């Protein structure tokens, strides 16, 4: 098991024990273990019992449970409580923002033992009858439950990308002479994925891949084979004859809406009642036969690409175009690695600059920096910069946007930063008018350089707070503020669908990893990939600029 999986098991144990009113001291110790273990860099499975026990907040009891997880994949203590709890109640504990205390109330007092039952009770207006649950709480809970149900059997692109790459390598190794391609959600660079899809031509005995080690077999039909990985990710391997490779590739790399519009235009261009696209060997020939310019798979989500200027593979932003790491946290706030570690990693990966954006003082939950610690970090950055050659570290902060839209320090501190990313982290339940004005006020602050993750969403877990995107982007344009595309695969915020409007208004997009560890820097690639769906070019990206030009663009 990975460190994150082990840590999460302790978090789950703490929640389910709290549900059963167990010893508060033990619950706190398991929560503490979760916070410690998720930050351990060395794989726990490679560490000795003595090394694990030496970790902060990890004693012999927790170390024994870690060993148990590594050896069996299960923790008997957690399994004991899980067996005492209806499965649907365990699911309730997974709903974001719905803690054990509230789960216990709806289970014991309302008798709801599944999310479906609880949602029905909410729609029947029964939750308001329980002490501590008002109309507003009930309305918010309905949204959370619906989001949870709608998110089941869906996956983040960034989380399944390594699985897809591994399966592709196995397919190529097992069928070296076959034609093999990634299709579906992954080739279209969709932030949310429902299946890992492949197209294969010229391969025999594909069912051998479903050996319960790589894939668990489900079924097959005339189109292909279907199964799941051991993590439960659905996999579809479509098959075709080599002579129809281009036809099938086009079909499985395009949305139904795009295909319908494509066929309509093809028929119009041919001035005929129909056009036959069967048995075409290359995908580009399909477009040539339709008398239409080639459209990249990531742009085939609807019919819009057929009326916009054609773009090639190299016209759109690529991960390797990003030249600087903007938005990174260190151990000064809630990052896992030190300032020096983050600098070394950014340099090792070939970047030209790094902005250190630890949390501001209002973010007490993330060890936000009070003014004295800001100045302490400034001194450390100055010292490190004297040792750099062809690399620059910028003094920055991720400043909380307070409820009234102001930034989180006095002007005396604000004016000393090289740049400021302004982000909302608290009070996410404002209505659209108030939330929009809050952002606009922050954007109009002369010290704001970049608006960070504008909606605060967490994909598959939390809807973004409501804002008028057009007004926010207009304000950025009017005030010379750049817009973050938070590249963390759980966020990808601002949504790619708003990139064309931002570029139309002249607003630059900054593709930022929001890195809380060295490994987090590599999330930049997910931001760059999804930005391609928004037709973002290198010219439209702030941190695709070299250090000298970046310097000029961040000055207000």
Architecture overview:
The chain is of the alpha/beta class. The chain has helices at residues 3-19, 24-37, 49-53, 60-72, 76-83, 87-92, 100-108, 115-123, 135-151, 157-174, 245-252, 256-270, 283-290, 339-348, 371-385, 411-414, 432-444, 469-479, 499-504, 524-533, 547-553; strands spanning 155-156, 179-183, 192-193, 196-201, 216-221, 224-228, 234-240, 324-328, 353-356, 392-400, 419-423, 450-451, 482-486, 509-512. The strands form three sheets. A seven-stranded parallel sheet has the order 8-9-10-11-12-13-14. The chain is globular, with a radius of gyration of 26 Å. The model has no long low-confidence stretch (mean pLDDT 94).
Helix content: 40-55%
Number of helices: 21
Shape: globular
Quaternary state of this entry equals single chain
- Determine the mean pLDDT: 94
| Computed Rg | 26 Å
Largest sheet: 7 strands, parallel
Write the topology of this structure:
Blueprint: H1 3-19, H2 24-37, H3 49-53, H4 60-72, H5 76-83, H6 87-92, H7 100-108, H8 115-123, H9 135-151, E1 155-156, H10 157-174, E2 179-183, E3 192-193, E4 196-201, E5 216-221, E6 224-228, E7 234-240, H11 245-252, H12 256-270, H13 283-290, E8 324-328, H14 339-348, E9 353-356, H15 371-385, E10 392-400, H16 411-414, E11 419-423, H17 432-444, E12 450-451, H18 469-479, E13 482-486, H19 499-504, E14 509-512, H20 524-533, H21 547-553
Parallel strand pairs: 4-7, 8-9, 9-10, 10-11, 11-12, 12-13, 13-14
Antiparallel strand pairs: 1-3, 2-4, 5-6, 6-7
Helix pairs in contact: 1-2, 1-5, 1-7, 8-9, 11-13, 17-18
């Amino acid at each position: 098991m990975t460190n994150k999986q082990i840590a999460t098991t302790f978090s789950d144990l703490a929640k389910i024990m709290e549900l059963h009113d167990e010893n508060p001291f033990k619950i706190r110790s398991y929560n503490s273990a979760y916070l410690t273990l998720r930050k351990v860099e060395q794989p726990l499975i490679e560490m000795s019992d003595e090394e694990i026990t030496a970790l902060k907040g990890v004693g012999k009891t927790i170390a024994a449970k870690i060993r148990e997880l590594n050896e069996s994949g299960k923790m008997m203590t957690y399994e004991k409580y899980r067996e005492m709890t209806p499965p649907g109640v365990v699911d309730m504990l997974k709903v974001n923002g719905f803690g054990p205390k509230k789960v216990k109330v709806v289970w014991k007092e309302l008798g709801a033992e599944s999310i479906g039952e609880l949602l029905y009770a909410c729609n029947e207006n029964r939750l308001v009858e329980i002490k501590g649950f008002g109309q507003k709480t009930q309305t918010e809970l309905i949204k959370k439950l619906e989001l949870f149900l709608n998110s089941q059997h869906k996956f983040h692109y960034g989380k399944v990308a390594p699985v897809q790459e591994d399966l592709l390598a196995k397919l190529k190794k097992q069928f070296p002479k076959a034609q093999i391609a990634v299709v579906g959600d992954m080739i279209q660079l969709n932030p949310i994925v429902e299946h890992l899809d492949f197209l294969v031509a010229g391969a025999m005995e594909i069912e051998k891949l479903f050996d319960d080690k790589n894939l668990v077999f489900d079924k097959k039909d005339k189109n292909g084979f279907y199964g799941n990985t051991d993590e439960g990710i659905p996999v579809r391997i479509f098959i075709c004859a080599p002579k129809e490779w281009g036809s099938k590739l086009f079909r499985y790399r395009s949305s139904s809406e795009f295909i319908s519009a494509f066929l309509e235009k093809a028929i119009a261009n041919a001035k005929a009642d129909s056009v036959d696209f069967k048995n075409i060997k290359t995908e580009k020939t399909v477009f040539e036969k339709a008398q239409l310019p080639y459209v990249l798979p990531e742009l085939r989500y609807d019919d819009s690409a057929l009326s916009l200027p054609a773009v090639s593979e190299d016209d759109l932003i690529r991960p390797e175009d990003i030249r600087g790491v903007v938005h990174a946290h260190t151990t000064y706030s809630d990052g896992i690695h030190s300032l020096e570690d983050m600098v070394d990693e950014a340099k090792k990966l070939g970047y030209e600059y790094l902005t250190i954006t630890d949390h501001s003082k209002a973010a007490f939950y993330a060890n936000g920096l009070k003014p004295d610690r800001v100045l302490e970090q400034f001194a450390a950055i100055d010292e490190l910069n004297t040792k750099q050659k062809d690399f620059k570290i910028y003094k920055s902060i991720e400043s909380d946007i307070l409820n009234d839209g102001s930034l989180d320090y006095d002007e005396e501190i604000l004016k000393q930063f090289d740049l400021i990313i302004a982000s909302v982290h608290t009070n996410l339940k404002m209505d659209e008018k108030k939330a929009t004005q809050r952002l606009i006020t922050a954007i109009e602050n002369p010290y704001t350089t970049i608006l960070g993750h504008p909606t605060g969403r967490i994909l598959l877990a939390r809807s973004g707070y409501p804002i008028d995107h057009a007004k926010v982007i207009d304000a950025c344009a009017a005030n010379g503020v750049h817009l973050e595309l938070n590249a963390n695969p759980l966020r990808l915020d601002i949504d790619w669908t708003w990139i064309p409007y931002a570029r139309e208004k002249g607003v630059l997009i900054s593709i930022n990893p929001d890195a809380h560890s060295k490994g987090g820097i590599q999330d930049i690639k997910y931001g760059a990939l999804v930005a391609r769906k928004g037709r973002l070019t290198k010219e439209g990206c702030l941190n695709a600029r070299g250090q000298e030009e970046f310097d000029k663009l961040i000055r207000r």
